Amino acid sequence: MSAPVGLPYRVGRVAWFALIALQLLWHGWLVRPEHLPAWLVLAATVVPLLIPLTALPDLRRALLWVGILSLFYFCHGVAEAWSAPTEKWLALAEIGLTLLLIVALGAGVKRRKPGT
Questions:
Q1: What is the DSSP string of 52-86?
Q2: Could you tell me which residues come within 8 angstroms of residue 23 by beta carbon, excluding any fewer than 6 positions away?
Q3: pLDDT by residue (tens digit) across 48-73?
Q4: Closest Cα partner for 50 from 31, 76, 33, 69?
Q5: Burial of 97 (0-12, 13-18, 19+ CB in 10 A)
Q6: DSSP 114
Q7: For labelling alongside 74, which of 17, 21, 22, 55 has CA 20 to 30 A away?
Q8: pLDDT tens by residue, 21-50
Q9: CB proximity list for 92: less than 8 A, separation 6 or greater
Q10: Where are the domains of the chain?
């Protein structure tokens, strides 16, 4: 039986799924791509976030992979916030979700006591 999942990991899971929903809304509905097919943009932005679902029985491991992937989404959010004023609110939401995810992962790390 696995250990109960703490609050930081539950927050991380919510941020992960919210990031998936944001990508679907952003690139699939709210601001459709102009120069590329929408399915290609959605594949590039959503599929990487779905891959850690294969590790979902071990939420900590899945969130570790999502945390690593979220660095890409953080960079994307910063670039879009800087260069696309009409999409700035979506980019700021992406930045916020990635930061929430990373903070949740950091808060969930069990620290060793000195001398052990």
A1: GGGGTTSHHHHHHHHHHHHHHHHHHHHHHHHH-GG
A2: 42, 45, 46, 49
A3: 999 999 998 898 899 999 999 999 99
A4: 69
A5: buried
A6: T
A7: 55
A8: 999 999 999 999 999 999 999 999 999 999
A9: 77, 81
A10: 7-108
